[in-house]
Amino acid sequence: MADEDIKSLTSKRVLLGVSAGIAAYKTPDLVRRLAELGADVRVILSKNSEQFVAPLALQAVSGHAVHNHAMTAESESGMGHIDLARWADVVLIAPATANFIARLCQGAADELLTTVCVATAAPLVIAPAMNQQMWQNQATQDNVATLIQRGVRMLGPDSGEQACGEVGPGRMMQPEDIAAGLSQSFEHSSLTGTSVMITAGPTWEALDPVRGLTNHSSGLMGYAIAQAAVEAGASVTLVSGPTNLEAPQGTQCVDVISALQMHAAVMADIDRQDIFIAVAAVADYRPQLEELKKIKKNAEKVSIGLIRNPDILAEVARLPKAPFCVGFAAETHDVEQYARAKLKAKKLQLVAANHVGGDETGFGVADNAISLISSDSVTELPKQNKHALARALIVEIAQHYQASNNNL
Q1: Of 30, 110, 213, 328, which has the fewest beta carbons less than 10 angstroms from its beta carbon?
Q2: Catalytic residue at 164?
Q3: The domain at 195-406 falls in which architecture?
């Protein structure tokens, strides 16, 4: 398989909806193809689709329990359909029957799959599959045109011999072609030709050979932004503090530990960058003295002298030919107020502000929400998984970057 295909579905969350058509028998192969390209796949079976494909087969290839059409009291005690809608980076319906297309066009929410389609903010992609006469029926064509106008993407259908013995358009695309087509849903060219540097993760400021000062940053948001920037066509350098994450494919990753090391890595290569996105939670202070041996537990009290670390973002923003600078403000309170102060004090183009310290957003959680602040605007990016949020953020950054260049 091609490197670009691997890149485009790595870490992507694909929610596959299976409607009740004969082509559903191909969906275990489709799940396998998507997984081979790096996707994490969950499956929802619509009403009657179990007559065409066994749930256990889909569970075996996806590695996850399959959701059926019903919204049970148990599954909905935690608002399961909303969780699935938020989880997905993309919702793929394959096969999509004429009946399902009609219900989707109407905005029906009469079972789990249709409800998720209405509730999700993720892109919808459908792979039609039906008899050739049903596909060519004017009602079906009108429904398809309406969905396309709403932003739903169509994959297929193909033309050829059908299960009913007739020949014509309406066959579901082959699983490998659907997987390749879905890959393109995450690709765009908004940052093609640009060089982007991103800092991510925490820093570690050593007290002695075994102890140090650090923070709760997992690095997930920075890594997700790096992946999103690659998908947008950028040449990406990721300067990362210590994390347990694998560097996104297509990035040049520079591993560092301390704030001073991160500062050195950034300044060594910043001259060739067009955009600098400072996501890392860099320690403001470091110990004045790093002990060469482990500090022993002898005294009741120990005083540790701290000295200020360089402000990497502020230093980059002050350069004579500074790149387009995006800062992050993680605050426990008065988020917008502090973010605007940071924007002004450091002369940044954008600040992505988020609330930390709670259980639902910020460090160490899967979902996040951001207020993207410029000198004259605030754009709210609602709570969603960090990979989806990163893609939305990169789209906004690209628009602001291009606007700033147009104003030069």
Answers
A1: 110
A2: yes
A3: 3-Layer(aba) Sandwich (3.40)
